Amino acid sequence: MRIGLFATCLGDTLFPDAVKATAILLTRLGHDVVFPPGQTCCGQMHINTGYQREPVPLVRNFADGFGDASIEAVVMPSGSCAGSVRHQHRIVADRYGDAALRAGVDAVAAKTYELSELLVDVLGVTGVGAYFPHRVTYHPTCHSLRMLRVGDKPLRLLRAVEGIDLVELPGADSCCGFGGTFALKNAETSTAMLHDKTDSITATGAEVCTAGDSSCLMHIGGGLSRIRSGTRTLHLARILAATRTTPDVLTEASV
């Protein structure tokens, strides 16, 4: 399958290893991964903050860049960005776009997936040949859980990883408190939610907390580092890309 890879803003600027891991994993599984060079922000942060007219050029650029008929699927290591493409882009196109934009948005949305969705639902795999001999807990991010409804797909992938000690996260479906600009506008509430989440993660005794969104892991990782919990954050893609011959090297930074 020819798969278009969308890096996302955070992936491009702060967490490129998650993007690279996605490409490495899919290539290892025998797929042709392409990276449209003109890609930019998907516009999610504008839309979530109430600026729906301003991201029209971004939405159009996304539809044009990934609308190439030779690209059979679009993948991104982010449930929130996948949710924006699949749900919010049509809202923007309906309100401020034209017929061509609406058609382009619909065509690309129909083939856009978060990583675990692509692997399980489209490619039909759960065992991807990964090896990760560490104690891990999984945080289901809000957009992947509530907007995309990925369900247990990430957990099914993790359970198939050789060597992993996967432990259940108490209160897993509770928000970590990030929510993009929510964390800035409602800092006290966000911090309280983060405190609950880091307490739950610490209680598992996990070496690693993983998720499908770098943004949530950035927030959680900051909280874990401040309490010196010893638990590190790592994107799901990096765990799935790790093998016996090419292991992932855990670092102190949230990733």
Considering the chains and any ligands shown, give keywords for the structure.
255 residues; four-stranded parallel β-sheet; 49% helix; 2 domains; alpha/beta; Rossmann fold; disordered C terminus; Glutathione S-transferase Yfyf (Class Pi), Chain A, domain 2
Explain what the structure shows.
By secondary structure, the chain is α/β, with parallel strands linked by helices. It has two domains: 120 residues, Up-down Bundle (Glutathione S-transferase Yfyf (Class Pi), Chain A, domain 2), CATH 1.20.1050; 107 residues, Rossmann fold (3-Layer(aba) Sandwich). It is built from 13 helices and eight strands. Strands 2-1-3-4 form a four-stranded parallel sheet, sandwiched between helices. Helix 4 packs across helix 6. The longest helix has 18 residues. The two termini are 28 Å apart. 47% of the residues are buried. It comes from Streptomyces parvus. This is (Fe-S)-binding protein. It holds the Pfam family CCG.
